Every structure is written in structure tokens, then in C-alpha cells.
Amino acid sequence: xxxxxxxxxxxxxxxxxxxxxxxxxxxxxxxxxxxxxxxxxxxxxxxxxxxxxxxxxxxxxxxxxxxxxxxxxxxxxxxxxxxxxxxxxxxxxxxxxxxxxxxxxxxxxxxxxxxxxxxxxxxxxxxxxxxxxxxxxxxxxx
Length: 142
Fold this sequence. Notes:
The protein is an alpha+beta fold. It has 4 helices and 7 strands; from the N terminus they run E-H-H-E-E-E-E-H-E-E-H.
């Protein structure tokens, strides 16, 4: 269930939890999010696309996400009292330890205030760590 607009994500031929969408559909997700959360997430979206302009925008697990080379490398979600940056990995946040001091988090979700953008340099490090992890895994699979 998409908390932003209360709808079930439509399932296209991209697997059970992922569907490729247009930027307009991510816009639709964001329109369902109240301010100041919407503005903060719009800023994060622009930052992610500035860092990885080749990223494909998708909906994964009901939230906006970004794929590079067919692998999901970043995403975000709005919740009642916080926003989350989602690296789509259980190990990326642990790699950045001290740089994430002061943020609440789970193993796979970095929480930040509804009216406080994540620094671009931090987002770049999070994405770089996830892409490096994806690259390591693809080399190991060969």
C-alpha cells in the first residue's frame, strides 16, 4: 500500500515488487505527500538525479526508487513523523558509520526530518556505496 496516496501499486511486467514508471507517476506519488515533506522529497529527488542522471525512476515496494544498470540504488519514502532515504541494501548504512551520526536509522533506512534535506555530499556517498556494492556482487556472480 502506498501511504502517500492510499493506492496499491499497479504491477506491470517487471516482477512483483517493481514497476517502471514515468517521472509523472513519481510526481503523482509526491503530490500525495503533504508539505513540508513534499518539498523535502522533491529536493532529494533532484539531488539523486543530479548525482546519477542516468537513473531510471521506478516504484519499488510502493515508493519512488532509482535504478542504475537495472539495479535499484536509492529511494525515499514519507512517513507520519519522518522521511526515509532507502539505499535498498541492508549493509550500505553500516559502511558510512560516523558520517551518519545524529540520524536515526534502521539497517536499511536512514530517517531524517520532514523539513530537513540530506546534504548532497552525504547522498553522493550513499549512492556511491550502493553502486560499489552492486558492482562487487555482479563481479562475484561471474
